Amino acid sequence: MDRLSTKVCIVGGGPAGMMAGLLMARAGLDVTVLEKHADFLRDFRGDTIHPSTLDVMEELGLRRAFLALPHRKVATLTAYVGADKFGIADFRHLPTKNRFIAMMPQWDFLDFLAGVGRRYPGFHLLMETEGTDLIETGGRVTGLRARTPEGDVTIAADLVIAADGRHSRIREQGGFEREEFGAPMDVLWFRLGRRPSDTDATGGRFGRGSILVTLDRGDYWQCAYVVPKGGDAALRAQGLEAFRAAVANLAPFLGDRVGELGDWDAVKLLTVRVDRLKRWHRPGLLCLGDAAHAMSPIGGVGVNLAVQDAVAAANLLSAPLLEGRLTEDDLARVQARRMPPTRMTQRLQRLVQDRVIARVLDGSGAPLSPPLALRLLGRVPWLQRLPARLVGLGFRPEHVAVPHAAAP
Ligand SMILES: Cc1cc2nc3c(=O)[nH]c(=O)nc-3n(C[C@H](O)[C@H](O)[C@H](O)COP(=O)(O)OP(=O)(O)OC[C@H]3O[C@@H](n4cnc5c(N)ncnc54)[C@H](O)[C@@H]3O)c2cc1C
């Protein structure tokens, strides 16, 4: 198996790649998705399935089967500032049937998409296969080389999609120019047990110089401790006991179990970056998801933007690919459709980063008091529908418009 040929070769079996692969195979295309790992099991990835993605699952007739998988529903988000508690987002009034975030391990989501994809004859998922080098002919990308446990393989394709995440190798090879926006923080992820008696809600806790986000995952709390950019080493130098105390200080109800953090291996660093490509395409090559735009963790929108990119790409590219008339203008249409919501989402994230996160992390100013916006949201619950809409549905929710050509 040293040579393969396919219509679309997708590098990366994350949310963008798997959804694009499934939709294109469903439209009748021959699609090969390459995933370098042997499985999807990686902890602390984006585990939030937002209403916009649930709507896509519904449009595919998959909602019921998908929500039969174990998940936790989050219908509201809360902020805690000292002893005060404020509602900040209420998903229960969204103009959709899916009025909640489904917290589900990303590997379950990806396994589910893989299972559905395999029902279509044109869907091929090659695990343990790493895209390594683009192949170009006459200035056009015409395929790529990949590494497999059995040896190297050459894959010819009408279109290569780089969906290989925020450190995309394929994007680098494509020579794309990236705009970097910076972020004032990094995030440390860990988990602590959840007790049936816990009454606290999913949300953020703001203290002087520190922030802790706690996500209710049923039998555990998924926790994100936000540190100033590059502050991970200094925090670790203070020792685990100091870290445990800082967590308990922000979330006193966790004080009886911070001892579960036995060593630093249990704490994983996410280096936050916010960037996007100026141009997402070249002849024969298109970048989607994190490869085109790494999002800030604010709002937990990364998975969902990746899925929306995939839906837009399948909607706009399936017909030209099926009819053998794909041009770079078609790829440009995908960018033209997805760039505005990406730009607007990042602008909002950067606003929150600069106006809220950076100020809280600075920690040197006046005693921490809830900002006016937070107090307003708390006092006028109706206003909580706006953040819910921005987070849950985003600026331009995509809908599946590609015909269902291949019967499962
Ligand atoms: C710790 C952490 C927490 C996060 N929390 C959230 C959250 O709560 N909510 C949220 O929405 N988002 C979150 N995100 C972001 C979210 O995970 C991403 O935005 C989203 O997964 C992007 O999807 P993607 O398909 O574009 O890329 P990825 O999910 O990065 O998928 C890329 C895939 O490509 C594979 N790959 C890479 N290179 C190659 C190659 N050369 N050949 C073959 N395969 C390759 C990788 O193994 C991976 O499976 C988090 C990210 C991290 C790191």
From TrEMBL:
Alphabetical list of InterPro entries matching this protein: FAD-bd, FAD/NAD-bd_sf, PheA/TfdB_FAD_monoxygenase
Domain of life: Bacteria
Keyword Oxidoreductase: yes
Coiled coil feature spans: none
UniProt keyword annotations, A-Z: Oxidoreductase
GO MF term list: FAD binding; oxidoreductase activity
Location of the FAD-binding domain: 6-338
Keyword presence, Oxidoreductase: yes
Pfam family, one: FAD_binding_3
Protein name as annotated: FAD-binding domain-containing protein
Originating species: Methylobacterium durans
